[in-house]
Amino acid sequence: MSKKKQYDERVLAMTRQQHLTHYVLRTRFRRYGAVSYIGHLDLMNLFGRTVRKTGLPILYSQGFNPRPEMVFALPLGVGINSEGDYVDISMSVKVEPEEFIEKMTPLLPDGLEIVSVVYKDEPKNSLMSVVTHAEYALEAPGITDCIKKIMTMDVIEVEKKAKGKIVTNDIRPQILKFIEEQSTADRACLMVMAGSSSNLRPESILQACVRYAGLEQVHADNAGVTRLCLYGGEYPNTKLIEDFV
Amino acid sequence: MRTHKEVVIPHSVLMSVQSPGRYVGGEVNRIIKENIVKALEDTGFTSAVRIAFCFPDVYEIGMSNLAMQILYKVFNEPEWCSCERSFSPWPDMDKAMRDNNIPLYTLETKSPLNEFDVVCFSIGYEMAYTNVLQMLDLGGIPLRAAERSDDDPVIVCGGPVAYNIEPMADFFDAVFMGEGEEVDLELAYEIKKYKENNKKDRQALLRRLAQIPGVYVPALYKDEYDENGRFLSLKPIEEGIPEVITKRIITDLDNVPYPTEPVVPNMTTVHNRAYIELFRGCIRGCRFCQAGYIYRPVREKSAQVLCDNGIAIEKSTGYDELGMLSLSTSDYTGLAELTDGLLNAYEGHHTSLSLPSLRIDNFAMELMKKISSTRKSGITFAPEAGTQRLRDVINKGITEEDILKSIRLVFEGGWSTIKLYFMLGLPTETMDDVKGIADLAIKIEDLYYEIAREKDIKVRRPEITISTSLFIPKPFTAFQWEAQDSIESLGEKQRYLKSLIQKHRSINYNWHGFETSVWEAVLARADRRLAPVILEGYKKGCIFDAWDDMFKYETWLQELDACGLTVDQFIGAIDVDAPLAWDHINIGVTRKFLALERKRAYEEKVTPNCREKCAGCGAACFKTGVCYE
Q1: A39 chain-B contacts, CB cut-off 8 A
Q2: Which residue is closest to A40 within chain B, CA to CA?
Q3: In a designed cystine with B131, which of A205, B24, B56, B258 is the match (CB 3.0 to 4.6 A)?
Q4: Does residue B102 form part of some domain?
Q5: Which of A42, A107, A223 minimises the CB distance to B267?
Q6: Do A53 and B26 touch (CB under 8 A)?
């Protein structure tokens, strides 16, 4: 091996080492409209392409197939809007949040917006492990009455497909709070368990409303679902995702 | 009077179908001309020409199609023209749309297809024909050209199948022959003048369109057959309509618009990458290959322009892979300069290059080491035929020694997965040729172990996959007169090949179904009498024929029979002197040359490629490209 080559190898090794330091931009974004109908993997790729377009010094994963280092807080289902989802985007050097927002904003498609960005020097916990709760808004005629009704029940059984079999689950313990002050007759806001340890999908709530509270199926099918925000920590002392390190 | 009414797709409909992202648009780099739609809403009129560009297959496939991206840019460039996209809805969405009375719409402004001035189809393969009917039907447009009124859009199409569009002649008002970059706008301009004139006379418009070089208006021609049902002629019905339509080509590819800001789908498509186009045409002249003849003459883009395209497109899309398109990458004369330039420009970007149809030699191996982020997927070879005799018949232009030399390089480079593509049913094929396929695969298997011993590397089992497709005689090839092999004979050949490699565990065999190939051959060479068959098949529920699990061969046979036609009529041998349903189209390459190539095939004589020696095919009439290098 030539001297030059040896030197190059060393620089490369050092850079790799240095790259283990993640300069993280914790990015809160909202999503609505056409782009809500894509899957989680598609959304990840979309963010990846957009970050690449900014020309900022993104950190790439190691290995044969390097990809921009990004961690999403919680997958967003197809057809669900969001007002407050999070992605940690890693840079190889420090990038100011303002610069990041300025460069990303014009490149994102309609329906994807960056709300705010906080800089994290080196997050201790993976963003995914931080999330414990989520707030959703469900929009359908008379939905609030339905939610109030099912919340008086001790057990709310819904059916879910798991590994090809239909299993019955009690979702009552996963619904924590109906948020009166943000709700109207046709828009119900509620806080539920979310994340890797226990996750309630909004479809299950709608199914319960049809089953136990007389919500019409056609209204459930057409219900608008928006994830309002994600939280971490133990209920009722939950904190915003930005506040975690 | 055309107006604008936005189609609303209920959330519940989108949530009830697979991959709703196909139907919503909203992509980066899409073009929406709001002023044109607004003028239409406010005043009920615009002289601007609105074009719906339709791709008769699902979104993921259509959005990977370069022609669509090119023409989208071309049509959207003038102020007076706007182009929006539409794709075939998958059967689940097709049903949901019919159930909910949702017309087929464009992704940009959600306008129903029947609101447009022009509905333009890009058709890459014959099996998409029924999807054309599906799109027209869902778009609220009468299927048959003869049934359309002055208020209906002008329905046009282009693409490689246009060269024999006769089976679809009933459904198109006009057809583009050749490359669309110039002729498409000429047609749009005629429509603009027509709109400004404000005198509605569809027939007069179609006659004017027929005067544009490269535009074929099927309704202005009449077909004739003899008493045995053989095709006799297709002639203009009146004076002033061209008897022969010559294809259009772009003479200078460096100076033609290229979509360096293509629409980037939000969802994952078949090919998730950006593209540059190295050249059009192919110097090789394989005798079965339609693309090899219809795109002649070979015209290259300069490495400098391509490098600039590659840099711009990476920036505008964010893709991490750039595909280099052409029929034979290794034949691009500036390949070293181009790849060096791009690798240089992409330094540190983690952007990879993909080079399909590369002939493996030392240069290619070096290149692959440089470009691939060492994703060691399989390497593909297309010997097409198993024996040298048959490879000479089809003018493949490679020897067994070439193949084994390349494969040696591949194995030495650390690959152990090889895919081999062959065709069954080629003219003059015997069981010896079929055996040749197995022999070649076994030689490759032996070669792997030999190299492993030489290099003293740990022996794994190589993975050698043989795929056979079936020969389909296509118009405008040296084999356009040939019969397609019978299903019985093909079945026998497949079974024989399978039996020969049965004991070799490192050799796998994949084959292609016979029935789709038979139907493809029928569609490829049929004349106008097939149009009612296609229409009836569609009405019986045939769509997405290109998808094996949706192809209904029995239905097609029944419909063919109901119209008094047989499969053999279209897939049987044609007399070399007999008139052909596509004789009124001129691709540059002459019929005389194709007949000569056929003769040379039977003599097992190889014709040198365009760069070695001009074979006088006729494409020089376009006065450009390799013919004048």
Answers
A1: 19, 21, 267
A2: B267
A3: B56
A4: yes
A5: A42
A6: no
Residues ≥6 apart with Cβ < 8 Å to B565: B229, B529, B530, B533
Asked if B315 has any chain A CB less than 8 Å from its own CB, the reply is: yes
CATH code for residues A3-123: 3.30.70.580
Find out whether B515 and B506 touch, Cβ atoms under 8 Å.
no
Place of tokens 């040198």: B608
Tens-place pLDDT, residues A55-104:
999 998 877 778 899 999 999 999 999 999 999 999 988 999 999 999 99
pTM of the prediction?
0.94
Q: Is residue B596 part of a domain?
A: no
- Measured distance CA(B134)–CA(B117) in Å, rounded: 19
In this structure, is residue B36 part of a structural domain? Answer: yes
Contact criterion met (CB < 8 Å) for A79 and B316: no
Interchain pair B373, A66: CB under 8 A: yes
Q: Which of B228, B246, B264 is the last residue of a domain?
A: B246
Q: The complex's ipTM?
A: 0.91
* Residue B522 included in any domain: no
Is the bond leading into B297 cis (omega within 30 degrees of zero)? yes
* CB within 8 Å of B503: residues ≥ 6 apart: none
B555 touches chain A (CB under 8 A): no
Q: Do B26 and A109 touch (CB under 8 A)?
A: yes
Say which DSSP state A184 is in.
Answer: B
Tokens linked to A233 = 């920590």
**Residue numbers of the domain that contains B30:** 11-246
Of all residues in chain B, the one with the smallest CA distance to A111 is B26
B420: domain CATH number is: 3.30.750.200
A35 to chain B: which residues are within 8 Å by CB? 26, 266
